[in-house]
Amino acid sequence: MIITSRHNPVVKLYASLKDKKGRISAGGYLIEGEKQVFEAVKSGKNVLSVMGKARLVSSYEGKVPAVYEVTDDICRFVADSVTPQGIFALVAFPQFKAKSSGNIVLLDGVSDPGNVGTIIRTCAAVGVKTVYILNGADPYSPKCVRSAMSGLNSVEVYPVEEGELEKVIENRRVIVADMGGENLFGKTISGDFCLVIGNEAHGVSEKLKERADEVVSIPMKSNMESLNAGVSCSIILYELLHKSI
Q1: To 10 degrees, the CA torsion angle through 227, 125, 170, 46?
Q2: What digits encode the pLDDT tens for the residues 131-171?
Q3: Number of neighbouring beta carbons within 10 Å of residue 220
Q4: Same domain for 128 and 181?
Q5: Is the same domain home to 225 and 125?
Q6: What is the CATH number of the domain that holds 34?
Q7: Under a CB-based contact definition with an 8 Å cutoff, are residues 4 and 67 in contact?
Q8: Using the 8-state DSSP alphabet, how is residue 163 labeled?
Q9: Do residues 57 and 125 share a domain?
Q10: Dihedral angle at the C-alpha atoms of 132, 137, 143, 149, nearest 10 degrees?
Q11: Domain that holds residue 116
Q12: In angstroms, rounded to a whole number, what is the distance separating the alpha carbons of residues 198 and 178?
């Protein structure tokens, strides 16, 4: 049966995922597009349901718990993008884990969704599997999800509270990105690390700076004050990890 009404409970649920309150209530986030949905299912993400045009969703029967066929009008209603792609999925939030090994990125108050999404994509590209977010943009907002693209399929992203930080960063060298730090290039970091990227305006908190084992900066010509958080994180990760890619 094809769903045609905007008042249908499933349609209302999907439409609510554009807002944080709706995502929290549903326990998951919205992804959109053939490639995004296909890769989410293929990668083993906990896809709770798929919704869209019949020709696009039929192949997911038996692969996800629920599949819903809807009209073009419903796709336009649910879509966050200007041009709906005709297929959506509800993906469950990952359960918080403090990983005991591996390189991680900690975002300390990064507030721009585009920066957060870019950082997630870069982490996927260089093999960093986990990102923690402290007091920053919601990584599961539509803008973050679009910016991250398929990065969320290979990178686990967890919001964290200050009380959880020690558990997150233990057994790792803490590397803080800061304009007053040492020249990044040529540095050798041994062992697992936690790279801390700070708020676009105020940088990394003093508390985390005090916890740092290394404070690094990206050298720039004198007429440039700074790079945005997404670009800075990308440069630092590639410098630290290019030999292992």
Answers
A1: 120
A2: 999 999 999 999 999 999 889 999 999 999 999 999 999 99
A3: 11
A4: yes
A5: yes
A6: 3.30.1330.30
A7: no
A8: G
A9: no
A10: -10
A11: 104-244
A12: 8
Distances (CA, A) of 29 to 20, 90, 101, 222, 239: 9, 6, 27, 42, 32
CA distances from residue 206 to 5, 120, 196, 198, 236 in whole angstroms, order as listed: 52, 24, 12, 10, 20
Residues for the chain: how many in total?
A: 245
pTM: 0.92
- Measured on CA atoms in the order 177, 179, 181, 182, is the torsion positive or negative? positive
The encoded tokens of residue 237 equal 């990760």
Identify the pLDDT of residue 98.
84
Q: What pLDDT does residue 138 have?
A: 96
For the chain, list residues with pLDDT below 70: 223
Spell out the residues 6+ positions from residue 241 whose beta carbon is closer than 8 angstroms to its own. Answer: 103, 126, 127, 128
The tokens describing 170, both together, are 């233990």
The residue to which tokens 């440039």 are assigned = 224
